[in-house]
Amino acid sequence: MKKIEAIIRKTKFEDVKDALLEANIEWFSYFDVRGMGKSREGRIYRGVVYDTSCIERIMLNIVVRDKNVEPTINAIVKAAYTGEIGDGRIFVMPVDDAIRIRTGDRGDISLYNAEQEKGV
Length: 120
Description:
By secondary structure, the chain is of the alpha+beta class. It has helices at 13-22, 69-80, 114-118, and strands spanning 2-9, 29-36, 42-45, 48-51, 54-64, 88-94. The radius of gyration is 18 Å and the shape is elongated. The chain starts with a strand and ends with a helix.
């Protein structure tokens, strides 16, 4: 199992969400986050200079089985890409265990509905 953390532009969230659903990733968490990027320029709006070094983004947290890592990454990259500075980052980390609280299932079986996959 792997945990995928992706930091993306707020404007690309709906596109990424739709791409993940198309890739059969039906569960993830997301948060509004702020961070510092490489761009340190100020923007001028109505004669006032605003600091743009603090960037608002969305962070996605997704835990997937090993077989779903590449499809998940590909969906995020394809949907979040603009080609401009600030498209974001993706981090992939190992997950030692996962437990479904309702059933006590452990490991990657806790990440999906086995009955649904068998067609029951």
